[in-house]
Amino acid sequence: MSIFIIAEVGINHNGDMSICKELIDVAVGASCDAVKFQKRDINEVYTKDFLDSNRESPWGTTQREQKAGLEFSKEEYEEINRYCKEKNIEWFASAWDLNSQIFLQKYNCKFNKIASAMIVYEDLLRMVAKEGKHTFISTGMTTYQDIDNAVRIFREEGCSFELMHTISTYPMNDEIANLKMINTLREKYNCNIGYSGHEVGLAVSYAAAALEITSLERHITISRSMYGSDQSASVEPAGLRILVGAVRKIEKALGDGIKRVIDAEALIAKNLRQHLS
């Protein structure tokens, strides 16, 4: 089974549809399998006091203006849906509240995503699981108890899922990647395991691919110097093309683990061992 590669646009579009389409084009050009977004009802996710607090941004001087500036409208999601169909790439989004999940249901996306921050939100887990769509569940900032509960809910609802090993720092330092957790999660939960990476660079993602993950998610950006909290942990267009190409090579190189002498080796062995015959 080929690794399912997800280009996480998230909020790196900065509320600009032209940037969003450019990022979708980047994902298509790199042969990613899907693009992913994030959807929030800011009045549900944040308190009024927080939204009214100060924050300088391209949209104004409050947290509300900044958060609202990063959210796409229904019309803009209609355009995302249309554009992704035109470009023949799957899209889906991680909802951060129940209203947002209900909003996303109308698009009938093939997949769902539970963000690490939301894995403790039982009502959301249950709503998503009841939809029955294959769901990627990130495990950053979690305890085994949190993961146990999420797995229980999805299995109770008969909804297919895979866990994604994640370290929720932005960017993530390579030395805390703890990639051996991929095998730990696979053995503990007897399910497919993916990797959602927030590191700078590509080497850690290559290593994750070699550990036989079933999905790989990386944030993408036009430039890491752009405004936004996720930009520095994202992969630029050239890097994304390199990443996808390398992952596909790694998949082929892993082989099937069965020892055999291939025809090309047999000829070489005959030559190198001629003095032994």
Which properties best describe this structure?
277 residues; alpha/beta; TIM Barrel; eight-stranded parallel β-sheet; two-stranded antiparallel ribbon; 12 helices; 10 strands; 43% helix; 18% strand; globular
Description:
This protein has 277 residues and is of the alpha/beta class. It has one domain (4-276): TIM Barrel. The protein contains twelve helices and ten strands. The strands form two sheets. An eight-stranded parallel beta sheet has the order 5-2-1-10-9-8-7-6. Strands 3-4 form a two-stranded antiparallel ribbon. Strand 8 (161-166), helix 9 and strand 9 form a beta-alpha-beta unit. Helix 10 (203-210) runs parallel beside helix 11 (237-254). The longest helix is centred in the C-terminal third of the chain and has 18 residues, at 237-254. The model has no long low-confidence stretch (mean pLDDT 97).
**Helix proportion:** 40-55%
Shape: globular
In whole angstroms, the N-to-C terminal distance is 43 Å
Major β-sheet annotation = 8 strands, parallel
Counting helices, strands and paired strands, the structural category is alpha/beta
Radius of gyration: 21 Å
Supply the CATH architecture. Alpha-Beta Barrel
Total discrete domains: 1
